[in-house]
Each structure stands twice: as structure tokens, then as C-alpha cells.
Give the backbone structure.
Amino acid sequence: MPSARNRKKASSTTSSQRLIGGILVEITKRRRQKNLYVRVHPPEGKVTVSAPSHFPDESINSFVLQKLPMIKAAQQRIRSEFRHAHREFISGETHYLWGKPYTLEVVTEGHRYHIQKESSKLIFTVPQDATMATKELAFNAWDRQELKSVLPKVARSIEEKMGLYAHEYRIKNMKTRWGTCNVEKKRIWINLQLAKKPVECLVYIITHELAHLVENKHNERFHALVERHYPNWREAKKILNAPLKY
């Protein structure tokens, strides 16, 4: 029989599902939670909402409906990126670098992995025993080097323009975010997949994350700061969230 303490802990969290704006939403209410959050999860774009236990259902519905365009865009992007993450790395596939599509040509030769960019093609040399997993690792390493070669110059230019400086930039293959900022450590994480998007998307994400060093929340002050330093952020965001065409 559960103890009184465990029963109290269990009752502090409740879960339910509800159709809001034609989308199935999983809602979790927690007694100790202070804010309302909506998240879209890979691989199929599942939508979850976490809210304080006292938050009215009507307010949750209104919040989700207000965020519906953003949710649908995130679902579309996540599904597209998930399909891309499970590519077979065979000849004829389309792969992107800085927004430009390249046709993959796989050559089986030697003992090392090598990617060479030629006009509209990527020549991908692989060993005889290459697997889909090892090919993906080689491509991720190549994307990482491409991003590393561009990131410092872009970041430095934006930092000087904004008068805001991060202590460190790191690259990570993230599933649901294009970038994150650890305000306390002034460390910014950049999604590896940004190497596939046009460079203006990288500019937008760095501007966005640097703005968090001044304002942690996505409030009016935050958006005004982004607007001041990158007026074209809406266009960049639209490109960023648009699925790549394969």
C-alpha cells in the first residue's frame, strides 16, 4: 500500500488529452509548476502542454490556439528533419549545404570517408564495409566542420553589432531547437542542422540567442532587441522553419 507521501506526490500531477484546433494535445498539470509551456516533439510532431495545476482549461485552449501557426510550422519542420535524419546516403539523394541542394554520388573506394563538393554534386567516397550508420557519422562530421568554419566570423560580426558577447559557442545535433543559451555561463549551443540552411538562418539564431543575455523571456523587450539588430528576422525565421525539398 503506497505511503501518504507517495499518494500526495502522485496526486500533484494530472494528465489528459484534448483536441485543440484539430490537433491532439497531451496536457500535464503539475502543482509546483509556475509557467505554461507548449512543446512539439520528434519524430511525428507530438504536442504537449505542461501547466500549473491551477491553470484553467479554457486558458490552455486559448494559449494553444494562439500558438497554432507556430505549432504547425514546428511539426512540419520536425517531420521533415526527421526524414532527413534517416536518409540512406546512397547515390541520387539530395543533401543540403548552406541552403543549396547537392546530388549525392557515392564512390566505394579505399578505407576512409571523404566528401568533396563539386558544382551541384557531393562526391562521397566510402570504404567497402560502410554502413548507413557510419555514413551518417561521416556526414555529420563534415557538416560540423563546415559550420565551424563559418560560425566564428558570423558570431563575431553579430556580437560587435549588438555589443553582446558569448563566452563560448558549441555545436550540437539537437532534435527540437535551433539554438539555446545558457545565460549564466554565457554559452550558446548551435544546432548542427543549421549547416543545411541558408546562412541568414544562422545569423538569426545567433542574434536570437545573444538577445537572451539581456532578456531571458520571449517578451516585448526581447523581440524589440532582435528587431533592432536584425530587422529581417521574420523572413529568416520563415526560411528556417520551411522544410527542405528532397
Remarks:
- The mean pLDDT is 90.
- The CA atoms of residues 173 and 192 lie 5 Å apart.
- The first strand starts at residue 13 and ends at 20.
